[in-house]
Write a structure and sequence with these properties.
Elements lengths: L1 E5 L3 E5 L19 H10 L8 E5 L4 E4 L3 E9 L3 E2 L2 E2 L6 E3 L4 E3 L5 E9 L29 E2 L20 H4 L2 E6 L8 H9 L2 E7 L3 E4 L13 E2 L4 E4 L5 E4 L6 E2 L3 E5 L1 H7 L7 E6 L5
Parallel strand pairs: 12-20
Antiparallel strand pairs: 1-4, 1-11, 2-3, 3-10, 4-9, 5-8, 5-10, 6-7, 6-9, 12-19, 13-14, 13-20, 14-17, 15-18, 16-17, 16-19
Length: 285
């Protein structure tokens, strides 16, 4: 088990998400950056469907109540085990009463803590992903005890780590497909959409990211229609909203773009004042 000594800014238990309940208004949820979460689980030989801790901006402190093996992937928040720096993307053996902490932010927004065997929190609607009004808590809190599965003792630490694609954190490019209402845009609006650089506003979270720049439009109103993580909506005021994992399942704004899965992952590692640029991806590529 893991005791939460300090929960940090916003940390949650997440797996691949909650599917098959959209008709009841239940969002998909799941890890924001599936690339990094999958990497952490894979290094431990866990199924990628195992639940992990998603940690936003660090600031967490955890005490392990039993021996296990962990891996941390994604953003670099200077992790330390018993005040000694540890590697990202590597197997780390943790002993009973060891303390894991996170400090200085070096890059990224979200990191993932995987444990050998996975987190063993309650399954609600076929998922362990925390979400308000679905699970008992929508995030972890100071003093929580997080159950984990026990694994054989042969797991070991490694002094080597797997190299990651730096572009996952540094690239400004978000690949996307055309959305259902893309052709409602004029030629000028389409050109602006793919030539301008956009800035992420302070309004960004697990539900969606708003951009500062405006795309002026007089598009007709849209009846409420289905939306997905990665849907890019255009409001009457010209605001662009990029929906993410905890987004609603329907929306009334024109859906002009749909981010690729890779771009959703990449977006999750960006924050206020970071810049992005849309590029159109062929359905055949």
């Amino acid at each position: 088990m893991i005791k939460v000594l300090k929960a940090g800014f916003y940390s949650t238990i997440q797996d691949k998400g909650r599917f098959g309940f959209a008709s009841f208004g239940v969002p998909f949820s799941g890890v924001m950056d599936a690339y990094s979460a999958d990497l952490a689980n894979s290094i431990l030989n866990n199924p990628v469907t195992n639940a992990v801790l998603e940690i936003t901006f660090g600031g967490c402190v955890f005490k392990f109540l039993n021996t296990t093996t962990i891996c941390i992937s994604g953003a670099d928040f200077s992790p330390k085990l018993n005040d000694k720096p540890i590697l990202l993307n590597s197997k780390i053996r943790v002993q009973k009463d060891d303390v894991l902490s996170f400090g200085k932010i070096n890059f990224g927004v979200r990191c993932y803590l995987a444990v050998s065997g996975g987190i063993d929190s309650p399954i609600v609607l076929n998922s362990r992903s925390q979400f308000k009004n679905v699970t008992f808590n929508f995030k972890i809190n100071d003093g929580d005890i997080i159950p984990i599965k026990q694994q054989p003792k042969e797991f070991f630490s490694s002094k080597s780590s797997i190299k990651i694609h730096k572009a996952h954190f540094s690239s400004e490019i978000l690949e996307c497909y055309v959305g259902p209402e893309f052709d409602w845009l004029s030629t000028t609006q389409k050109e602006k959409l793919f030539t301008d650089i956009f800035t992420i506003s302070k309004n960004n979270n697990r539900m969606g990211y708003q951009l500062n720049e405006i795309l002026n439009n007089k598009l007709p109103q849209l009846l409420t229609s289905s939306v997905l993580p990665g849907t890019v909506q255009l409001t009457p005021s010209g605001k662009l909203i990029l929906l993410t994992r905890d987004c609603q399942i329907t929306g009334g704004y024109p859906r002009i773009l749909q981010l690729s899965e890779n771009s959703i992952n990449r977006l999750s590692q960006k924050t206020t004042n970071n810049v992005i640029k849309f590029t159109l991806k062929s359905h055949l590529s």
